[in-house]
Amino acid sequence: MLGIDTNILLRIFLTDLSEGDHTPDQFALVRAAVVGSREPFFVNHMVVVETIWVLRQKLKYSKEVIAGVMTRLLHMSNVMVQDAATVEASLSSFIAFPGDFSDHLIGEINKRNGCRTTLTFDRAASKSPNFSELQR
Q: Which superkingdom (predicted)?
């Protein structure tokens, strides 16, 4: 199995990045490595979080488009996403409630590890049932 970094994952899904240090050759290298590999690829939570951050903050993709991209990733036969069920549930919360994907992933991980709630000062995240806002 091979691990994939954020900059590789972005180039799997995007044919042109408007930001960053890259050349068209990088896209060709990534496509050849992914398509040509007989080994599966592993994508951890940090890579998912960073990828969604770039898509949302830098490229201004909507939550719905991001969810579509991540759903494609979750269903790729040669890709294993760390705790895919948690990522999928976090995507659902990301679409349904305010807050960043990273907030929803934190809440979902905590819930799946026995937490009744996750305490936060983040008003947006607190709209999710996985969080409780501490009043200032």
A: Bacteria
